[in-house]
Write a structure and sequence with these properties.
Blueprint: H1 3-17, E1 23-26, H2 39-51, E2 57-61, H3 69-74, E3 77-80, H4 89-104, E4 110-116, H5 131-146, E5 151-155, E6 169-175, H6 179-194, H7 206-214, H8 243-250, H9 264-273, E7 278-283, H10 289-292, E8 296-311, E9 318-328
Parallel strand pairs: 1-2, 2-3
Antiparallel strand pairs: 4-6, 5-6, 7-8, 8-9
Helix pairs in contact: 1-2
Length: 329
Amino acid sequence: MTKETFEQLCTWFLAGAEGCDGALINLHGAMVAEGCEDPEGEVLARLRTVFGPDAPIVVTLDLHANVTEKMAANASALIAVRTYPHIDYYERTWQGAELMDRALRGEIRPRTVIAKRPMLRGLNYGRTQSGPMRDLLERGDALEASGKVLAVSVCAGFTRSDIYDVGPSVTVTADGDTTEAKRVAEEFMDYAWETREFNSDTIISIAEAVERAKAGEGSAGKPLVLADDSDNTGGGAYGDGTNLLRAMIAANLQNAAFHAIFDPAAVQAGIAIGVGNKGRIILGGKHAPEMGGGRSRWRHRLSLLLTAAFAATGLPFLAEAHGSALGRA
């Protein structure tokens, strides 16, 4: 995020906070802005200055947040989602709202502590189905249910962020006294450190992935997903890589779909061609062709053009498409 954008957002955000008794905020936790490695911590610090030391500030986070000391020091409670893929934002937000309600009524004084270790990656990168991440989540659930702490959040961190505070963390929110909370956080992070080599993820080449798809893997009534991990826009990639698309076309994969390439120019070309017509489009590879496979030139029939805001059913997000084109090879 540019420095100007960050400062403008802060201005709007803090102006809206004037006169409020507290704040329940949904943040991601791995934002980076020009000149500020910890923009979310900075936002919370500025908000704390507006509210004073006692007003409740409850924050929900992504499981891949790079949580910092600054965030923990200025938030009353930090609550991270517990599923990967992240499908429990509603439940975690409701949990945060309940803590906020209790704090505003004077029933609790939530305080949060954090523990980290010098590790870029761990907790099986946040996979919640099994392994060390699952273990800690279950232990955290039991502690919350016992009433010994108010909230336990285990974050795998976002490894691709080039910042000082990158990596896994555990935050524990307690009512007033944080002595036990700190012990729990450190104990959990000791386990994260001990299991840091655990990894259920196996990276294979595009060639092998396409070969396995063509051989029928995933054909037992369920789709097989081929994910290009190198073109992750969250880690700085451009999202216009064509290596996987080229390989799928070259292998003549049948009953297959590809999503998605970020290429506004290709969408505009599709608009010019028109739905139902055939045309030639230069797709992708416009930013770093030497990395992602270069531009893909192909002739196809345009099936759909879309410019709309739409709700992603089943997930608590509003996705906005600023122009999309669907073609059939």
